[in-house]
């Protein structure tokens, strides 16, 4: 399985000049924990709900004036859409993040994959494996 089979393609995005308040509303409305910041179709940053809490609320900043550029993690770790799941696990571990933007061959944003997506897939696979093992166990 590759990242392209696991990723979500309906990524919430914004430009670097988006206000923190707009980012927060998008996260609320779309029920996501991050917004990928794009320029020219390429991911140049990511803002998470934690970034908003720490960078705006904790600092008593004006959410109408604080921008994505000020809050984002610039140059986020990305993964190619043809990356395998085992390598994806390694990327999550080495980057120490919960969300990874996925890029196409040309570097443009293709999707996003989250640690939760990976976890759900792995649990489903484990469940399928468990059923296969149970089916092969003779009755006692």
Automatic annotation (TrEMBL):
Please name the InterPro entries in this protein's record: CBS_dom (IPR000644), CBS_dom_sf (IPR046342), Diverse_CBS-Domain (IPR051257)
- Where in this chain does the record put each CBS domain? 7-64, 72-129
Task: Report keywords, A-Z.
Answer: CBS domain
Q: Which residues form a coiled coil?
A: none
Pfam families in the record, alphabetically?
Answer: CBS (PF00571)
Query: Which SMART domains would you find in this protein's record?
Result: CBS (SM00116)
Supply the PROSITE patterns for this chain: CBS
**SUPFAM superfamilies, alphabetically?**
CBS-domain pair
Q: What is this protein called?
A: CBS domain-containing protein
Native species? Halobaculum lipolyticum
Q: What is the lineage of its organism?
A: Archaea, Methanobacteriati, Methanobacteriota, Stenosarchaea group, Halobacteria
């Amino acid at each position: 399985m590759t990242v392209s089979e696991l990723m979500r393609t309906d990524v919430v995005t914004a430009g670097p000049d988006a206000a923190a308040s707009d980012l927060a509303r998008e996260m609320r409305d779309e029920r996501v924990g991050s917004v990928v910041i794009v320029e020219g179709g390429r991911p140049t940053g990511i803002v998470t709900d934690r970034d908003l809490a720490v960078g705006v609320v904790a600092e008593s900043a004006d959410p109408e004036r604080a921008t994505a550029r000020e809050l984002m993690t610039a140059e986020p770790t990305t993964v190619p859409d043809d990356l395998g799941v085992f390598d994806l696990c390694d990327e999550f571990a080495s980057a120490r993040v919960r969300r990874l933007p996925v890029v196409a061959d040309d570097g443009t944003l293709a999707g996003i994959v989250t640690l939760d997506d990976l976890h759900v897939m792995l649990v489903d696979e484990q469940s399928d494996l468990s059923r296969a093992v149970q089916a092969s166990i003779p009755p006692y």
